[in-house]
Hints:
Chain A has 500 residues and is α+β, with helices and mostly antiparallel strands. Chain A has helices spanning 23-31, 64-75, 81-85, 113-138, 172-190, 259-277, 290-298, 317-331, 337-355, 365-380, 389-396, 405-411, 421-427, 436-447, 478-490, 494-498, and strands at 5-10, 12-15, 51-52, 56-57, 88-89, 95-99, 102-106, 144-147, 160-167, 194-199, 202-209, 217-222, 229-233, 245-250, 306-308, 314-316, 451-455, 458-461, 468-471. The two termini of chain A are 32 Å apart. Chain B has helices spanning 29-42, 47-50. Chains A and B meet through strand 2, helix 9, helix 10, helix 11 and helix 12 of A and helix 1 and helix 2 of B.
Amino acid sequence: MQRLIGIETEYGIIREDVDESDPVVESMELVRCHRRPFRADWDYSEEDPKQDARGFRAETLQQEQEELDFEKHDRERPFSFHEMKSDLMLGNGARFYNDHTHPEYSTPECLTLKSLIAHDRAGERILHDCAKRRNQILGIEGALQLYKNNTDFHGHSYGCHDNYLLPRTLPFADLVTHLIPFLVTRQIFAGAGKVGVETGHHYTQKGFQLSQRADFFEVEVSIDTMHARPILNSRDEPHADATQYRRLHLILGDSNMSEYTTALKVGTTSLVLQLIEQGLAPKEARLEAPVSTLRAVSRDLSLKQSVTLSDGRSISVIDHQRLYLEAAQKAFSKGDAETQWILSHWQSTLDALEKDPMQLADRIDWVTKLWLLKTFMEAESCAWDDARLPGLDLEYHNIDPERGLFLSLEAEGEIQRFVTDDAITQAMDMPPMDTRAGVRGLIVQKFLKNIHKIQWEKVIFKGNQAQGVYRFDDLFDDKAIKAEIHRLNQCTQVASLLAH
Amino acid sequence: MKMQFERREKPMDPVERPRKEDGPKKPDTDRSRDRLLKKMRKVDPKQSEKYRQRTGE
């Protein structure tokens, strides 16, 4: 598999030692516990969240009033906008900052699944290290807790976004037609599972569903991300040469704890994008009512409910995924090793979901969580209305290995791994050297003190030694990346880096 | 009915696997269950009630 992919994760954050805490301050202080010093150096000048991939600029976003209210409140704090954001570009090519009152970790751009999963896990461990330092400063062990999940069980959701680089020549309308149906049923293996149902800000503890996020999606396509969330987000912010590329910014997915689930979620999506690019996506897979189907699928643990296609036929949710799998098997049977892994595990996962989902308790998040909850319910002779279950759901996602239920299972050796701990440790410090993130990460490692502003696709230097902008908007060619990393390794001065 | 992990035969992974994952391995389910149950019983029953976040993206 060779596609540039990155994952952004907004973490839940809470202080357990006080009744109320300010999430802006807590997120800001957490980021500043990273050993890279904060210096207000993120460049926001070229970001435009209103630019729409459908070819226009939105006049307004639905979250604007809420944002204005936040800003009003923010002005009462003794911090500037940049101080509150506390943006850090790390030496491993990742971005770590306070986004909308949540600490967010965005992996560097990765070219392979192994690299991506290692960097996603590296983010968890970096945040846990920062939480440990924060708790040392507070002098209270375990005061600050972090959760890699998507809901607070009171109707507030926060995201895990998977991003894919696509050619600009691929019409956005093709994604609307062919990707939305795939995303609607992807949750049968990509969901992280949730106790109960959220409607608006109302929580009902009613059974278990496949997805953390499905309750929060209201439309098929839109530029919004915080209100009336869309299955397909149309924000057009490529962080690359906009004449050549687009960045698909998927906001539908759950935050996954399982490496295997993340690999399958991202890997299958990448293959479906390849099908769409080549005009090979299954045309019959279009759904009659994607938004209501999204919720219905999430709430059907039996996986037996049919989905209605746009031609009026009904098929099982598993067979709907098989339409995409079979098209990918035909098209990519001679693909590389990762492609073979995706195809093989996509098929075995669908087969297991059809036969007995509990076979997947060691790898698919929603099944693992359901197994844990059922084990607890059986031991405690309690039912789905037991008040302790939402708390157990939450603790599944705790990233403290001493407390997190998923991480405990993983430590016991009960969970299928996709990468080694050594690879994760390396990813905490080193960027992927086969993408432009390698160049950016090395620049941060070598020339941090000379950096004035930074973005995904550029570094602005300012100072006595040298001034100028180093851009890598279109640095995607393998040979060019290798050559640039080689040149960067030889550079001892910013001036020599800029002189080309 | 007792819930159990069941590992199924699966195709060989083309990706490198951690050393401890070499070959099929029967998990020590009862030992894991007991430790997990102990941990789950320790979770504050009001944990999710106290957990409030702001809307993100």
